[in-house]
Design brief:
Keywords: Hydrolase, Magnesium, Metal-binding. This is Hydrolase, haloacid dehalogenase-like family. Pfam families: HAD. By secondary structure, the protein is α/β, with parallel strands linked by helices. It has eleven helices and eight strands. It has a single domain (4-216), classed as Rossmann fold (3-Layer(aba) Sandwich), CATH 3.40.50.1000. It has helices spanning 19-29, 37-50, 56-63, 72-87, 93-104, 117-126, 156-168, 186-191, 202-211, 224-229, 231-234, and strands at residues 4-8, 109-116, 131-135, 137-140, 143-148, 175-180, 194-198, 214-216. The strands form two sheets. The chain has a six-stranded parallel sheet with strand order 3-2-1-6-7-8, with helices on both faces. The protein has a two-stranded antiparallel ribbon with strand order 4-5. Strand 7 (194-198), helix 9 (202-211) and strand 8 form a beta-alpha-beta unit. Helix 1 (19-29) runs antiparallel to helix 2 (37-50), helix 1 packs across helix 4 and helix 4 packs across helix 6 (117-126). It is globular.
Length: 237
């Protein structure tokens, strides 16, 4: 049994950006995809996501068409370059420090995101986080398809997948801390014991104020002095 676990959303929480959208832009810049429809689909995805009406199955079925004939080994090579050059610079300094605090306290850390798992896990590994849950995709002939495998880590699905993982690991934490920016994660907020909203959207900000959840303002320019000075507001021992 672990008395506490720390669960983090990824996009706009640990990093200043959306990894799914950034991944599509990376593939576009590298001319791996050349059809502007994929960029337009990502822009529509963000609009629908923030409006709380995203059809995840439909979106992934379309967006992963570009990789359907690409061996997963090649995708992994692109991902390494993508994470090093596009994602690492977007990790909030306060997020880096908070992850380190939990590591020093031997608190298990989990990243759970509505981005596809092969992207989430690559990013988590770069951040030194061993456990990451994302949307698992069915593979055919060594290539990723647009078909979702199991329960997607989206809205209520995040709670379901986290519960499944805890059962598999034989963990029964007494206290779950959860960090997120989005009202789409309300099911996880209600499931967790302690919530930290990071630059929350307006809906989540309103709910956080009602419930008395801690609201954090993380920026890429935040100094180490500011992080240390606010440390007591970000974690309870």
């Amino acid at each position: 049994m672990s008395p506490r676990i720390a669960v983090f959303d990824l996009d706009e929480t640990l990093i200043c950006g959306d990894s799914s959208q950034l991944w599509t832009q990376y593939l576009w810049e590298k001319k791996i995809i050349t059809d502007p429809c994929f960029i337009e689909a990502d822009q529509q995805m963000m609009t629908d996501y923030h409006a709380g009406k995203l059809d995840m199955h439909k979106y992934l079925a379309f967006s992963l068409q570009a990789l359907h004939q690409v061996p997963h080994e090649q995708v992994d090579i692109w991902l390494s370059d993508f994470v090093d050059n596009k994602i690492r610079p977007l990790l909030y300094p306060a997020a880096r420090r908070q992850l380190e605090i939990y590591r020093q306290q031997h608190v298990p850390i989990i990243i759970i995101s509505a981005t596809v798992a092969f992207v989430v896990k690559k990013i988590a590994a770069a951040f030194g986080v061993q456990t990451a849950l994302g949307i698992d995709m069915i593979m055919e002939n060594g290539c990723y398809t647009g078909k979702i495998q199991g329960t997607p880590t989206f809205r209520d699905g995040k709670v379901i997948r986290l519960q499944q993982w805890l059962t598999e690991q034989n963990l029964l934490p007494q206290h779950i801390l959860f960090y997120t920016d989005s009202a789409n994660d309300l099911p996880m907020c209600l499931f967790a014991n302690e919530i930290f909203t990071v630059n929350p959207d307006k809906h989540l900000q309103t709910i956080a104020s009602t419930h008395g959840w801690k609201q954090l303002n993380w920026t890429l320019e935040q100094s180490l002095f500011e992080i240390e000075g606010n440390r007591s507001d970000k974690v309870q021992n």
